[in-house]
Amino acid sequence: MFTDTVLLSATTPFSYFPIVLQLCAALGFVGLTMFATHFLGPKRKTSDKLVTFESGIEQKGNARQPVAIKYFLTAILFVLFDVEVIFFYPYAVNFRELGWDGFLAMLLFVAFFLGGFFYILKKGALKWED
Amino acid sequence: MGMSLQQIVFGVLSIISIISALGVILSKNPVTSVLCLIVTFFTIAGHYIMLNAQFLAVVHIIVYAGAIMVLFLFVIMLMNLNAEIEPQKRSWLKYAGAISGGALLLVLLAALREASVSSLQPGAVEIGLISNLGKTLFSTYVLPFEVSSILFLSAMVGAVVIGKKEGHES
Amino acid sequence: MNELQLIPLLPFIILAMASVVTILLIAFRLSHTVIQVTGFLMMCLVVFATWYVRDTLPEEVPPLFIVDGQAALFTGVIIFCVLVIGLFSYIYFEEREENPKEYYILLFLATLGAAILTISQHFISLFIGLELLSVSLYALIAYLRNRNNAVEAGMKYLVLAALSSAFLLFGMALIYMEAGSMKFSGIAEKLPQVSSSPLFLMGLGTIVVAIGFKLALVPFHLWAADVYQGSPTPVTAFIATISKIGTFAVLLRFAQTIHLQQYPLIIAIFSVIAISSMIVGNILALRQQNLKRLLAYSSIAHFGYLLVAFLPGNEAGTEAAAFYLIAYSITLLSAFGVITLLSSREHEAETLDIYTGLIWRRPVVATILAISLFSLAGIPLTAGFLAKFFVLSAGVQQAVWLPLAVLILTSVIGLYYYLRVINTLFGTSGTADVMQKTVHPFFHVSTYITLVVLAGMLFWIGVFPGLVLQGIRLFLLLH
């Protein structure tokens, strides 16, 4: 009864309880494994073992170098389109009720983004080789 | 029973979020700051779920803990972390910041103490559900929804203008 | 929502379309001139659309927008400014090697943001409009990223604008928590119950912080000088006119709807802000050797004057504020137009030595600059004088004596540095004119003509204000 009305109704915060359980299980597993291997396994700290692992190649410099701005540009464009996609969620849930009005609203919304996307493509902002 | 389950969850979430938020600003290492920020975002998403604002919680995790965090990490990667770049701030600036921040906190606390909670109606708790939010968004607030897509457009163009190397257009 | 309700929004829809059209034009790699001309035509279309919908006013587009006479008036001023700024931009960016095309997209989007502010009657549209304005401005300010400390200016504006947005949202949340509505009229209905609540007042206070930042009022003015100096000159003109007109319009509507001026506390806060803006702005401008920074400080002071018209909260005050904004925009546009015209490829014409003896080398330009400075100083026969006069008379009606006294005193201080610049114009030791203009003479000539017309308008409004006043009254009656 309780599972039916409260947990599965998806209208109360308690329907998120399984997710919390899952989160706890995932974090607990990670924590437990790290804890267990730390105590169970033998440890021999030689200088070679403490070096950063680079697939067997000798280590060169460190990773703390400034990266190119193009990564950032791609990332920020990703965020914008990510946010756009989020808006599909409430639309999809109400797809039937909203009918053509909702479709037109969504169409206009996507049209603006497509205009932007077209601009980005033509501008070569997503071209990797510069 | 002194506290309900909700109060306990709220307390735990709040404590974690305050500690991790302090970690963001107190940590010397920028990467640690970002990790603390992720924890803060997750606890705030938890708060949204407690308020039954499910869509907000989902968006918060996907956009903030997911996408915005990537941006933060990229910004950190754009900096040169090898150099000792911790700027030597003038100490009076620190004190001024602390004093003004503290004053704001005091005023807020005083206002909250004076505030009457009676004006808060425990009404519409289902408004944050995705289907209800979608209905409102696509009927009453459809105009600002479209304007927000124009806002994205301006962010897009701005990012390309500032971030793109020039001289590749013939 | 039906189609009929969208008709009053036609100018705004066209404004949005202008930016999309520009984006597509850029995607198809059309030239700067094509984009400039198309943009100009689109803006003319916006003006026609405003004219076309005038009979449907006032019309409410619930819940967010209201298109009434006041909104139409401020939108009209904004469109006028963007037409002039667009013209200045052509000669400014054509001189520089950077790709100038995206500039127009951002310009139109920022204008749309300011225009949305003028028709907002809801916190959501206020926030979206303000963000649209700011996000476009971040990129506009840093547009010439290789020079002029542009990136520094953009960064400063970004950080402070984001902070002020946070304050705005926090204030909105507090007010919503107390009043249960984000619509201005909804808040006004709830006012009797909540007006003494500390959280409500706190919310108002944080919103004042955000608005004060956008209008560069003391003590939220710290960004002004650096941003004015660092941005390209047409963008500086944009920040000084359109961005502030939009913000002031929404402040005015909010104040009118919830009768903000009935709270002694709010009046006190705004009086302090107005007085400190007038004093600090004028005093910081006194020793300034950089014309753009000088105009930044002068605009801080001018918005202090404008707040004096805002304080009484009566109709004369609104009229005076509208008149003031019109006079101020024309004045600043002509001043920044002169700076644009004199700027060379490498250097902005911002240090005062460039202007030494300008009157002997380029008499027309120097005269226009002198007229706009006279108008800023509020010398009789110019628009600036009458604007100040109307502000004074609106203030006298409601007897806000202290701000009025400060206004008069600081105007006298202001006279000193404006006259100092004019004195420089008449100086003897002039440096050689190094400008090499390569743009098409048509644009050069049309910029000149625009400047002359602007200067003429300053005189015309200053001597015969009747027509403008009548127009303002006609618009303000439509509500």
Automatic annotation (TrEMBL), chain A:
Keyword Transmembrane listed: yes
A GO MF annotation of the entry reads: NADH dehydrogenase (quinone) (non-electrogenic) activity
Per the record, its GO cellular-component terms are: NADH dehydrogenase complex; plasma membrane
Q: Which chemical reaction does it catalyze?
A: a quinone + NADH + 5 H(+)(in) = a quinol + NAD(+) + 4 H(+)(out)
- What Pfam families does the annotation carry? Oxidored_q4
For this UniProt record, the keywords arranged alphabetically read as follows: Cell membrane, Membrane, NAD, Quinone, Translocase, Transmembrane, Transmembrane helix, Transport
* Compartment(s) of residence: Cell membrane; Membrane
Q: Please state the Enzyme Commission number of this protein.
A: 7.1.1.-
Q: Membrane-crossing residues?
A: 20-40, 71-91, 103-121
Subunit-level organization: NDH-1 is composed of 14 different subunits. Subunits NuoA, H, J, K, L, M, N constitute the membrane sector of the complex.
According to its UniProt entry, the function of this protein is described as:
NDH-1 shuttles electrons from NADH, via FMN and iron-sulfur (Fe-S) centers, to quinones in the respiratory chain. The immediate electron acceptor for the enzyme in this species is believed to be a menaquinone. Couples the redox reaction to proton translocation (for every two electrons transferred, four hydrogen ions are translocated across the cytoplasmic membrane), and thus conserves the redox energy in a proton gradient.
Family per record? Belongs to the complex I subunit 3 family.
Q: Which PANTHER family match?
A: NADH-QUINONE OXIDOREDUCTASE SUBUNIT A (PTHR11058:SF22), NADH-UBIQUINONE OXIDOREDUCTASE CHAIN 3 (PTHR11058)
Protein name as it appears in the record: NADH-quinone oxidoreductase subunit A
Organism listed in the record = Chitinophaga tropicalis
Organism classification, top ranks? Answer: Bacteria, Pseudomonadati, Bacteroidota, Chitinophagia, Chitinophagales
Its gene is nuoA
UniProtKB/TrEMBL annotation, chain C:
NAD is among the record's keywords: yes
Kindly report, in one word, the top-level EC class recorded for this enzyme: translocase
Provide the GO MF annotations for this entry: NADH dehydrogenase (quinone) (non-electrogenic) activity; NADH dehydrogenase (ubiquinone) activity; quinone binding
Provide the transmembrane region boundaries: 6-27, 34-53, 73-91, 103-120, 126-145, 157-179, 199-223, 235-256, 262-285, 294-311, 323-343, 364-387, 399-419, 445-469
Q: Where is the NADH:quinone oxidoreductase/Mrp antiporter transmembrane domain?
A: 120-413
Matching entries from Pfam families are given as:
Proton_antipo_M
Which GO CC annotations does the UniProt entry carry? endomembrane system; plasma membrane
Tell me where it resides.
Cell membrane; Endomembrane system; Membrane
Primary residence: membrane
Q: Which InterPro entries match?
A: NADH-Q_OxRdtase_suN/2, ND/Mrp_TM
Its keywords, alphabetically, are: Cell membrane, Membrane, NAD, Quinone, Translocase, Transmembrane, Transmembrane helix, Transport
NCBIfam families (alphabetical) = NDH_I_N
This chain's function reads:
NDH-1 shuttles electrons from NADH, via FMN and iron-sulfur (Fe-S) centers, to quinones in the respiratory chain. The immediate electron acceptor for the enzyme in this species is believed to be a menaquinone. Couples the redox reaction to proton translocation (for every two electrons transferred, four hydrogen ions are translocated across the cytoplasmic membrane), and thus conserves the redox energy in a proton gradient.
Name this protein carries in UniProt: NADH-quinone oxidoreductase subunit N
Lineage per the UniProt record: Bacteria, Pseudomonadati, Bacteroidota, Chitinophagia, Chitinophagales
